[in-house]
Write a structure and sequence with these properties.
The complex is a heterodimer of chains A (192) and B (644). Chain A has 192 residues and is an all-alpha fold. Chain A has a domain of 126 residues. Chain A is 71% helix and 2% strand. Chain A contains 6 helices and 2 strands; from the N terminus they run αααββααα. In chain A, helix 1 packs across helix 2 and helix 2 packs antiparallel against helix 5. The radius of gyration of chain A is 24 Å and the shape is rod-shaped. Chain B has 644 residues and is an alpha+beta fold. Chain B folds into 2 domains: 448 residues, Sodium/glucose cotransporter, CATH 1.20.1730.10; 98 residues, no CATH class. In chain B, the strands form 2 sheets. Chain B has a 5-stranded mixed beta sheet with strand order 1-7-3-4-5, covered by helices on one side. Chain B starts with 5 loop residues before the first helix and ends with a helix. The chains are: A mainly alpha (192), B alpha+beta (644). Chains A and B meet through helix 1, helix 2, strand 2, helix 4 and helix 5 of A and helix 5, helix 10, helix 12, helix 22 and helix 23 of B.
């Protein structure tokens, strides 16, 4: 496992095709998370000025006992806890993406150290494509190693065993090595 | 100000001494060049977040926000929201990758990402420009605050702040600054929060008088003001008050009535109004008709009247307070008070302000340099998230001063000194020693704000100056940094002493708009887009910087036309930022030849967690890496190309 991780990070470092796929996957996940958070932030904040401008009743509402209008309360107080929550959610999401990425590099079950909440089953077609692609590349590497000799063979066996275990335990959640039985379907088979 | 000067002066002295003392602690710790620049990158998220909060909360936050909200109402609450939400954007788009880039400064980032010395130079110039732009109002604000609280000459505050900052930076560099900044965040929070509870207690005891709603503040009780400055005021409704002094250049003694143009009232025959109207119109030109006591002064379309320094104005209870539009003392250019922001196209102004603040935060040099001091990318992220909590906690308080100021100190609108509401309110509301003590506390907090922001800016500007301008002239890194620090402070300090007065909020807003139009596109596209080219980055920085700077300069020099064009120039970010992004994108797509080689390697460095890189550092194992020789790999490469 350690060996695989070292190799994968070297792929990243040396800008091989596999490294590039790893990087694109990571970038895509992080970008998607960032865009989601920013859209939420933009919509949440961006609607407020228009709301207060076009619904004068809302802006004119007086908060009883505080002696200020509703906009003061919303813009002066309520906004800040909301921003903190958004920030925390993003940090959690980004750290999860990174730990998934590290799992992916190590060949561990992705997200295997976490309890499986329902909302986290993210399986987009692109993600599945990447997973298939990575599996093929891994197989190609395994083939190379097999030709290379004994050491490589040992490490490959360990590797495959790990994946089988994963495939049984958390079906559908491991993004990449999509199951132990290699060679199931060509890369283009399930592609739309 | 009626309170004696010594408690406030003592508080200022104590803050300066404490700052220097805490900084001296760092002196023993700072040994290497890396210590000076980025505290050797070993500052924990908690310390770093406090330090960032301390550094970020400048005079504009400590004094300016309350002043703006007092003057112009809830719309101005978008300023602190923007300052805070800017960190959310920074956290999401920039924090971790920037830390992982391993750069010291923004020019470093430009060079690491784009590999272009030319781009680096452009970035250096922008950093120094934005930094100086931001330092200038800090020094000015220090002078004004010290004058308001103690009557000291305005240059003294600027000199004190500049001196303490230089001493501190010279002594300890970034490490000591980190400790100082963290200390100052908590000092500022205490200084602004503690008086609020006393003020609210008094307000509650007074029967919780409601702050007049948005729109025009009205006096709750009779107020008598002696004008220290000559002010040009505007009224929205006919307003009667007693005045002894000089109105529109002519002596008056007794009741005066100001009415905006187009308001009909029954106070006299139409001819009188027209005549009075002529009076006001003529006051700026050659004609001179006396404005007599008891007469309605009908303001022309300009809608303003000039009240001279030394006049005494008494506003009865229930009077809408005439609002100062400009402070005309010292003969020269009028300082624009905090609340003078024009209200036309308010919605556009609000959105454009939000764009500038949200996207500008990431481009401020003193904000960015802080993230290099985190141990890793995850630390940078956690730091940014913690900062948002600290800033949010702080910004709960300035609006309270503003709301209470509408009840207890509406005359600040007339004198145009709304920026001093935080300093003035404790002594107004709580007479006696308690009020004086609290006034001294907020004065100390204000100075902490000036000192910490100036320190952070000085460190970042000094870093860029010493790396890019002074490198060849000094022998060691530390000497270069010290020379840079002196230069970083000297230029804006000289500017403060020599230059005309520019509104604090204006300059800070300009700095945000320029940062949003230049570094924001560079950082965002540099971190998230592979195809950014050197030519695209250069063009984007140039166009964004030129348009934002010139728009704001036109506004500050008073050349802007009225109406939508004026609003577009006063708040340029809503169009300059998209323009800069568009230029960077389009030019990059047209000049693929100048896309730096090895962009994948740099992006790997920016985005891949440190844990992976640590694994790579482990001893090499037997598993061979992929080569391009394998047919299967080649097949999949073409596959990948078809499905990027």
């Amino acid at each position: 496992m350690r060996a695989t991780r070292g190799a994968a990070s070297r792929d990243l470092d040396e800008q091989t095709v596999l490294g590039d796929i790893y990087l694109r996957g990571l970038l895509r996940d992080q970008r998607r998370l960032a865009i989601g958070v920013l859209v939420a932030l933009g919509v949440g904040l961006g609607l407020l000025p228009a709301l207060f401008a076009f619904v004068p009743d809302l802006a004119g509402t007086h908060v009883p006992r505080l002696g200020v209008g509703l906009p003061w309360l919303v813009l002066g107080v309520v906004v800040y806890p909301a921003l903190v929550l958004v920030a925390r959610a993003y940090v959690r999401g980004a750290e999860r993406t990174e730990s998934d990425f590290i799992d992916l590099l190590s060949g561990r079950p992705v997200g295997g150290d976490r309890p499986p909440p329902l909302a986290r089953v993210r399986r987009s077609p692109r993600r599945r494509r990447t997973a298939r692609l990575l599996r093929l590349l891994r197989e190609a590497r395994a083939g190379q190693e097999g030709r290379a000799g004994e050491e490589g063979h040992t490490s490959q066996e360990e590797h495959t065993g790990q994946e089988e275990h994963v495939g049984e335990e958390v079906p559908g959640r491991n993004k990449v090595p999509g199951g132990g039985e290699a060679g199931g379907g060509a890369a283009g088979g399930g592609r739309p | 100000m009626t309170a004696p000067a010594w408690p406030a002066a003592l508080a200022v002295a104590m803050v300066c001494v404490a700052t220097l003392a805490v900084g001296a602690l760092g002196l023993r710790l700072s040994r290497t060049t890396s210590d000076f620049y980025v505290a050797s990158r070993v500052v924990s998220p908690r310390w770093n977040a406090s330090a960032i909060g301390g550094e970020y909360l400048s005079a504009a936050s400590f004094l300016g926000v309350a002043g703006l909200v007092l003057a112009a109402g809830a719309d101005m609450l978008w300023y602190p929201i923007g300052y805070t939400a800017g960190y959310v954007v920074l956290l999401v788009l920039v924090a971790a990758p920037l830390r992982r880039s391993g750069a010291f400064t923004l020019p470093d980032f430009a060079e690491i990402r784009m590999g272009s010395a030319r781009l680096r130079r452009v970035a250096s110039v922008l950093v120094v420009g934005i930094g100086w732009l931001y330092l200038l109002p800090q020094f000015q604000g220090a002078g004004l605050a010290l004058r308001a609280a103690t009557g000291a000459p305005a240059w003294l505050g600027a000199v004190i702040v500049a001196g303490v900052v230089v001493l501190n930076v010279l002594a300890g560099g970034m490490r000591s600054i980190t400790i100082v900044q963290a200390f100052q965040y908590w000092l500022k929070l205490t200084a602004i929060a503690v008086p609020v509870f006393f003020l609210l207690a008094v307000w509650w005891r007074d029967g919780a008088p409601a702050a007049p709603a948005d729109g025009h503040p009205v006096t709750v009780r009779p107020v008598t003001v002696r004008l220290v400055d000559t002010v040009r005021v505007r009224v929205d409704t006919p307003t009667t008050f007693t005045m002894y002094g000089v109105l529109n250049g002519h002596p008056v003694a007794g009741p005066v009535r100001l009415a905006p143009d187009g308001v009909r009232d029954g106070s006299g025959p139409a001819g009188t109004s027209a005549e009075a109207d002529a009076t006001v119109r003529a006051s700026g030109g050659a004609g001179r008709l006396p404005a007599q006591a008891g007469e309605t002064v009908r303001l022309g379309t300009a809608g303003t009247a000039v009240l001279s320094a030394g006049s005494t104005v008494t506003l009865p209870a229930g009077t809408p307070v005439p609002r100062a539009e400009a402070i005309l003392s010292r003969g020269g250019t009028g300082a624009v008070p905090a609340g003078a922001a024009r209200r036309d196209h308010a919605l556009y102004r609000t959105y454009s302000l939000l764009v500038a603040l949200l996207l500008g935060t990431m481009g401020l040099p003193h904000v960015i340099v802080r993230f290099y001091t985190n141990p890793d990318g995850g630390g940078a992220r956690r730091t940014a998230a913690a900062v948002i909590g600290l800033l949010g906690a702080f910004y709960l308080f300035p609006p309270v001063y503003a709301a209470l100021g509408r009840v207890y100190a509406p005359d600040l609108l007339l004198t145009g000194r709304t920026d001093t509401v935080v300093l003035a309110l404790p002594a107004r509301v709580l007479p006696g020693a308690a009020g004086e003590a609290l006034a001294a506390l907020v004065m100390g907090g204000a100075f902490a704000a000036f000192l910490s922001t100036s320190s952070g800016l000085t460190v970042s500007v000094a870093g860029v100056l010493s790396q890019d301008l002074l490198r060849r002239r000094t022998r060691t890194g530390v000497a270069g940094f010290r020379a840079g620090a002196v230069l970083a402070v000297a230029v804006p300090a000289a500017g403060t002493l020599l230059a005309t007065r520019v509104g604090l909020a204006d300059t800070v807003g300009l700095a945000f708009a320029v940062a949003a139009s230049t570094f924001c596109p560079l950082l965002v596209l540099g971190i998230w887009w592979r195809r950014l080219s050197v030519a695209g980055a250069l063009c984007g920085l140039g166009i964004g910087g030129l348009t934002a700077t010139s728009a704001a300069m036109v506004t500050m020099l008073g050349w802007a036309p009225a109406g939508l064009a004026g609003a577009l120039l006063a708040q340029p970010a809503a169009w300059t930022v998209p323009l800069s992004f568009a230029v960077m994108l389009l030019v990059s797509l047209r000049t693929p030849a100048t896309v730096p080689a090895g962009v994948g390697r740099v992006l790997t460095r920016l985005h891949v967690p440190e844990a992976v890189r640590a694994a790579r550092a482990a001893p090499p194992d037997s598993t061979p890496a992929f080569g391009l020789s394998s047919p299967a790999v080649q097949h999949d490469q073409s596959d990948a190309a078809r499905h990027p």
